[in-house]
Amino acid sequence: MSADPWVWAAALCTLAVFSFLFRDNVLYRIAEHLLVGVAAGYMLVLTWHDVLWPEVFQPIGSQGPGLALVPLALSLLFLGRLVPGSLGHQGSRIAVAFLVAVSAGVNISTQLQARVLSQAAATMALPATGSWVDAFGQAVLVLGTLTGLSYFYFSREHRGVLGVSARIGALTLMLAFGAAFGYTVMSRIALLIGRVLFLLRDWLGVLSV
Amino acid sequence: MGALRDRVAGLAAIDRRVIFVVIIAAVILPFYVPLGLKVTPGPGSRRFFDEVDRAARSGRPVLVSVDFGPDTEAENGQMLKGVLDHVFGRGGKAVVLTFQPTGRGVAERYLKEAGRAKIEGRDYVFLGYKPSPANVMLNMGRSFDLDFTTDAHGTPLGDLPLMREVKSYADLSLIVAVANNAIPRFWIQFAVEPFKVPLVTGLTGTMSPQFYPYLQAGQTRALLAGMQEAAEYEALLKEAGLASSPGLALRGMDSQSLAHAAIVLFIVLGNIGYLASRRRKR
Fold this sequence. Notes:
With 209 residues, chain A is mainly alpha-helical. Chain A has helices spanning 5-18, 26-63, 69-79, 87-124, 132-151, 160-203. In chain A, helix 1 packs across helix 2, helix 3 crosses helix 4 (87-124) and helix 5 (132-151) crosses helix 6 (160-203). Helices cover 55% and strands 11% of the residues of chain B. Chain B has a 6-stranded parallel beta sheet, with helices on both faces. Chains A and B meet through helix 2, helix 4 and helix 6 of A and helix 2, helix 4, helix 6, helix 8 and helix 9 of B.
């Protein structure tokens, strides 16, 4: 059994979280609150050490107030939202506007290229090889994409050709959701394996893998 | 006949605690009684192995983006360990960074273990955590100096021999993003598309289905999905003599398989119970 107090702390927290499987209880809630508190504290320290100090305060201290004052001023303006009706509250709109404008500028063209044009081109591309399997796969992809899109076309009632297409689209979506569910199950079991290994090997020492 | 039908209908309402106990047992049992199921690498893990192998042998450094925390270490940890073992085992160099706050500690721990025979600054560099991935990724395409003046320990980049070789993406052979979130999508949007730098991804099972369209479009050249493909990659590394120690993924596959079988069994039983109870209501 481990003699490390941090391993004990982690093991007891793990068991407290697992106790929720039986029913909601005070141990689970303690672990939950602990996680939120530790996460907030961790973020605060990390933001100071890795962002605020090296990016803002250190440059101001060593090179004097320069460009680093701009993000600092905008960050302080954000805090104005905490006082409704004040001048600071109005000023916070400048910071929000700056953030929205930068995000839009950075995202619009790159998003269009990466998630629309390249994806559309890949859907329309001819199969890489001349094999029947690839050709069939590409046909399924095109059919699934078009029928899936038709399912979200709501300007006409889903009857006739559109109805059939929307139905095939819905089935395609169901297949995608099924695959996603299968992967989620796999993922959750993997996490459980990780925790079980930690308890048996690192904490109790009854497993030697 | 009626009693039997009642009993079958009761399958639709198995106490959830029974299910939890069976799943836990299915996970623990194979560690003591191995099933010996064979892990055969598929095309996805082979492509991932080939891409990392080619990049590690190219002589140019590999950028590893560690975008996961301790919460998904069981899945992503094995991928990261494999990638670092692979790159260092082939004599390659790695520049490591993270855009996930909880990734900082994880990245440092894995680097320390995989790079114990390597020299920090010459064979690998840890740039630490940076917020705002979009801007940082765009800047890195022009020059790393725009956002990184020091490494994670405060050493100026100019004092690190490896960083004298790496000025922008053009000096890298590959980006490897190991993540449990949407950061690889940022890599595609802000590095792959504008700067044409190759990317491979190692993702949790939950994230993988969202990234198959990018794989199909060639925006990510290879994708490792969840613990199963991490185990396949581990098997390939073992075959190539590059695994530094036995990993968790291969050991966990028996548990994974047995737990999946238990879940499938419960789904089948639940459906039988549901059909029986529906018939009884009629």
